[in-house]
């Protein structure tokens, strides 16, 4: 599912900006469903970004989000990414494929707060390499 691929620093920066844009929408949205959807999208885009920095491209196949979360967790050395990410993924799948679910605003606030830290960890990880962004 993962293959080697050389990304430009510009492409990696573009991925990170897209992920942070989704995070801002998640953080600022007034509806829990909107916050949750954009928080999950941001998490997956952050995972894609970190994989890209490590010259890995994911192929869209069944289970590819699971692999992305595993690699993201591994690269950042943060097991919570895989744990919380899979909780979010499971909830998203139930909402999509089981006819919808209730998205609790308190739970979403916790996810967004947690994701805020992951965004910062990702930023630190990406910017630790001085040649990555010009």
Instruction: Please give the largest β-sheet.
Output: 2 strands, antiparallel
Low-confidence stretches: none
- Helix percent band: over 70%
What is the strand arrangement across the widest sheet?
1-2
CATH architecture tag: Up-down Bundle
Give the tally of β-strands: 2
List the helices and strands and how they pair.
Layout (H helix, E strand, L loop, with lengths): L1 E3 L4 H20 L3 H22 L2 E3 L5 H13 L2 H19 L7 H23 L7
Antiparallel strand pairs: 1-2
Tell me about this structure.
This protein is mostly helical and 134 residues long. It has one domain (2-124): Four Helix Bundle (Hemerythrin (Met), subunit A), CATH 1.20.120. It contains 5 helices and 2 strands, in the order βααβααα. The protein has helices at residues 9-28, 32-53, 64-76, 79-97, 105-127, and strands at residues 2-4, 56-58. The protein has a two-stranded antiparallel ribbon with strand order 1-2. Helix 1 (9-28) packs antiparallel against helix 5 (105-127). The protein is globular, with a radius of gyration of 15 Å. It starts with a strand and ends in a 7-residue tail after the last helix.
């Amino acid at each position: 599912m993962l293959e080697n691929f050389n990304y430009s620093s510009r492409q990696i920066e573009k991925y990170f900006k897209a992920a942070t844009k989704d995070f801002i929408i998640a953080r600022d949205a007034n509806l829990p469903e909107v916050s949750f959807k954009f928080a999950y999208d941001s998490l997956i885009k952050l995972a894609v970004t970190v994989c890209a920095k490590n010259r890995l491209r994911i192929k869209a196949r069944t289970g590819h989000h699971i692999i992305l979360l595993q690699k993201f967790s591994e690269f950042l050395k943060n097991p919570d990414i895989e744990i919380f990410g899979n909780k979010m993924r499971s909830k998203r799948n139930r909402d999509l494929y089981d006819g919808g679910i209730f998205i609790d605003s308190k739970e979403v606030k916790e996810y967004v707060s947690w994701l805020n830290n992951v965004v910062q960890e990702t930023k630190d990880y990406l910017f630790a390499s001085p040649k990555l962004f010009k």
